[in-house]
Amino acid sequence: MVQLNKKRGASLEAPHLKKIEQKIINLLTFKFFIMKSFKDLIFVKKMGGVVSRIEFSNGYGASVVRHPFSYGGNMGLYELAVLKKDEICYDTSITDDVLGYLSTSQVDEVLVKIQQL
Questions:
Q1: Would you kindly state where each structural domain of the chain is located, as residue ranges?
Q2: How far is C-alpha 16 from the geometric centre of its chain's CA atoms?
């Protein structure tokens, strides 16, 4: 909120705005760096492919797999299931089923959405 000083007129000091702007940037940057992404997944070989599970601080998680029996696995793509309490969760705003045929960047997008639930 801008306060008017009747003696000096309406003014905002530039350093004051710069400090606020920098605080906002710092908060956004901090959130960006703590978000987990595809690169944080640790895959193990299983079922002729790879599987990984990751848990987030909000109680949700994800199972990410790529094997001959997964949706898109034969094409080098990934299948992702949203987890809650280590079980597949079918009632989120993200999906009501598993998601298949995902590229690594699409997996990243879904992981961010899960962390924002």
A1: 38-115
A2: 32
Eight-state DSSP code of residue 76: T
Give the bridge partners for 66, in sequence order.
50
Q: The whole model's pTM is what?
A: 0.72
Question: pLDDT tens digit string along 57-80?
Answer: 899 999 999 999 999 999 999 999
Which two three-digit tokens encode residue 15?
């350093």
The residue type found at 86 is D
To which residue do tokens 């940057």 refer? 29
Q: Concatenated DSSP letters for 14-60?
A: HHHHHHHHHHHHHHHHHHHHHS--GGG---EEETTEEEEEEE-TTSE
Q: Which two tokens stand for residue 9?
A: 């007129």
CA–CA gap between residue 73 and residue 100 (Å, rounded): 9
